[in-house]
Amino acid sequence: MSSYYRDRVAWVFGGSQGIGLALGEELIKRGCRVRLFARRADLLSQEAARIKAEWTALDVADYASVEQAVQEAQGVDGSPFFVFNCAGLALPGYLLDLSPEDIDRMNQVNYLGTAYVCKAVLPALVAQKAGHIVNVSSLGGVMGLFGYTAYCATKYAVMGFSEALRREVAGYGIRVSALCPPNTRTPGLEQENLRKPPEVLAQEEKVQVLESSQVARYLLKALPGNPFTVIPSFDGRLAHLLSRWAPGILNLFLKRPQAK
Ligand SMILES: NC(=O)c1ccc[n+]([C@@H]2O[C@H](COP(=O)([O-])OP(=O)(O)OC[C@H]3O[C@@H](n4cnc5c(N)ncnc54)[C@H](OP(=O)(O)O)[C@@H]3O)[C@@H](O)[C@H]2O)c1
Fold it and tell me: Is the CB of residue 57 less than 8 Å from the CB of residue 16?
């Protein structure tokens, strides 16, 4: 087991279910002291008790709430070494059908929530001259997927923000990585599937769906090597390579079927 995790404090934002909760569980197995953050205190307290973590309720889309939660948690834990930004949501749909509120909501949680948490924790990481921030983007943060126009933009924003931050804080001894999961079986994916256009569902049936524990284990194995982009599936890594070096080939697979 890697000593990269032993006895370190890990904060998992968006940690009460899905990928965040799986990460919390895997971090505890590796010897971290874990605190989970999310909005619903009932679920959060139940899952934290089950996995033997601490918890703090907050809304990442509200900077005042983030600042207060970070201060409270620091009062108990001291500064974290790991910060995982997993809070996020996908509201798929063609741009013609999305509401402006859908677009705003995804920006608020996926991009602003990530930026707010990073801003609030950074002074403590700079002071201790160490830390590892992991922002959860998506495969939709490295390639444009039809049916996810507004979502992809928020996840590309997470990639750009994370890449710039990585260069900005490396000199303080702080690492920044970005996780780009493919479809992963979580409560969030279940919700998302309820509103996907049928062509998107048909397309996704062809690719593998990962378990959240697989994503968490892949990420934690990769992090000691300080990678920037972490893509936990073979299909995803192949698609990412094609999108960079042979986008014409990827277009054949990712094109929306003729609109009726
Ligand atoms: N699952 C996938 O297929 C997939 C694929 C690619 C990328 N991702 C990304 O991976 C991340 C996790 O996805 P998931 O499927 O595990 O999601 P999920 O099952 O919906 O879990 C989301 C977690 O974030 C918390 N959360 C949501 N909004 C929040 C807010 N405003 N403030 C604080 N906490 C908030 C939720 O708890 P509360 O609701 O109680 O706040 C929950 O703990 C997201 O960024 C998602 O975009 C997921």
Answer: no
In testing the pocket of ligand 1, which one of 21, 62, 63, 86 has its CB within 8 Å of the most ligand atoms?
86
pLDDT in tens, 211-231: 999 999 999 999 999 999 999
Query: What is d(CA 219, CA 22) in angstroms, rounded to the nearest whole number?
Result: 11
Evaluate whether 142 touches 240 at the Cβ level (below 8 Å): yes
Q: Is the pLDDT of residue 101 over 90?
A: yes
pLDDT at 1 over 70: no
Average pLDDT (144-164) is 97
How many whole angstroms separate alpha carbon 201 and alpha carbon 235? 17
Q: Distance from the CA of 63 to the center of ligand 1, in angstroms?
A: 18
Pick the CATH number of 9-254 from 3.40.630.10, 3.40.50.720, 3.30.720.120, 2.60.200.30: 3.40.50.720
Q: Tokens 């909760």 sit at which residue?
A: 21
Where are the domains positioned within the chain?
9-254
